[in-house]
């Protein structure tokens, strides 16, 4: 049974939070060969959120190191890092900078500019608040989970191959997944 935490407690949120990469995940899902999904994640990223008086005024910034891509297959990782897809030599980071935040029921909608491969497009990620806690080390933590779908072609990632049975090797639609644990800074 999954339980979501009411967002009303975040309306009085104040402070600066840093994403804890050891307890967070930045990932993606792509359909492969029209029959299965490939999941991947980025193992190196950093981010912060600053809120003064509630989430509606929160500012979130995230930087992902593209070289840390991991799909659990070294050959595939190399191809996705190449010029056919993410071109890490020219574009070593993926960045997100928020432009707005709103609460609708139990959903926190984070809107901002996502830059992949030098192309910036606005996106909105609906998040659920997973809770707040003080960990055994005295850190104040908050957790969120969210996902959104983008079209990789919008970011200049157009490589594909036609399949003999019809369809293509890699889907245009990519699901971005975020599981975030953030620690309040002193």
Automatic annotation (TrEMBL):
Q: Which residues form the Lipid/polyisoprenoid-binding YceI-like domain?
A: 16-183
Put simply, this protein is called: Polyisoprenoid-binding protein YceI
Q: Which Pfam families match?
A: YceI
Residue ranges annotated as coiled coil are: none
Q: Which family does it belong to?
A: Belongs to the UPF0312 family.
Q: Which domain of life is it from?
A: Bacteria
For this protein, the record's InterPro entries field holds: Lipid/polyisoprenoid-bd_YceI (IPR007372), TTHA0802/YceI-like_sf (IPR036761)
């Amino acid at each position: 049974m999954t339980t979501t935490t009411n967002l009303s407690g975040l309306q009085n949120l104040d402070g600066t939070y840093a994403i804890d990469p050891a307890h967070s995940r930045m990932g993606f899902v792509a359909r492969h060969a029209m029959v299965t999904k490939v999941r991947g994640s980025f193992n190196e990223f950093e981010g912060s959120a600053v809120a003064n008086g509630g989430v509606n005024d929160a500012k979130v910034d995230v930087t992902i190191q593209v070289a840390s891509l991991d799909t659990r297959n070294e050959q595939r990782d190399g191809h996705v890092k190449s010029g056919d897809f993410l071109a890490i030599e020219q574009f070593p980071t993926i960045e997100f900078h928020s432009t707005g935040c709103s609460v609708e029921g139990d959903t926190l909608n984070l809107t901002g500019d996502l830059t992949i491969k030098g192309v910036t497009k606005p996106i909105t990620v609906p998040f659920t608040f997973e809770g707040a806690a003080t960990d055994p080390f005295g850190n104040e933590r908050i957790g969120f989970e969210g996902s959104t779908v983008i079209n990789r072609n919008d970011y200049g990632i157009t490589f594909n191959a036609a399949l003999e049975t019809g369809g293509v090797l890699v889907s245009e639609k990519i699901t971005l997944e975020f599981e975030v644990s953030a620690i309040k800074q002193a």
